[in-house]
Amino acid sequence: MQRVLIGLDIGGTKFMVAAANPTSLAVLATVKEPTPAGLEEGLSLLHAMIARVAADADIAGIGAAAGGPLDWQTGVISPLHQPAWRDVPLGRIMRDRWHAPFRCDVDTNVAALGEYHLGHYTERRLFYLTLSTGMGGGLVVDGEIYRGGLGGAHPEVGHQAVPFHCRHPARVACECGAPDCLEALISGTAIRRIYGRPAEELDDGEWAEVAWNLGQGLRNMAALYAPDIIAIGGGLARQGERLLKPARQVMLDHLKLVPAPRVEVSRLGYDTALLGAVVLAHEAAGL
Ligand SMILES: [Zn+2]
Predict the structure, then answer these.
(1) In the chain, which residues have pLDDT < 50?
(2) How far is the CA of 74 from the centre of ligand 1 (A)?
């Protein structure tokens, strides 16, 4: 019987599910659906999506990317942007229904894992940064996600403080309550809140502020983690060198003592968390 790996990207606006070849990790089928409001509806939809992509194949492992907070060790998830999902024992639910090994992690960590393995990096330390409606990142060292302790904690790079440039400082407000978070300056949501329009419509002066703030974040990440490379994905990364060139310069101008990492656009470019979930499924299956 054919065997497949299943990757789940459980997002606040959409669910994506993929089936992949257990050896090559090549994606065989993908489905996407809007996220339902209710928990029961959401779980039924996920099961139906898995059945659709798996067809008649045997499932060798399931990996899932979800919003935090979650405990990757127990598989209990409470994604912040899905209010009906609180303390959901997703690991137990998936194992009971599909009789397959399961592993999950926060979407930013999973995206970093996908970027590293499927982007075929040879460097030992990759920092992956997602810039989309929200922002976050994950550090992969020697092919493994760097995790914190304390019940499955993980670094939250979006909530680092930066000395920012912003013509509307009163509009800088993070969901977490702190007054100077990087996410509150450069995520897609933050850009709309601060400048009143999406990133692609910013004028040069506004764009320079976004690049400065990102550059300060890059400088902090480089100084703290000394990665070989920082890869940037998510919708905002489609701006490419328009964003990266000035941000990289700010990093270089302010980074002392630590060698500067390369700063590049993501090699996968899209569906990074979904592809990373396939990598997690591969790890769960012990293949
Ligand atoms: Zn914050």
Answers:
(1) none
(2) 26
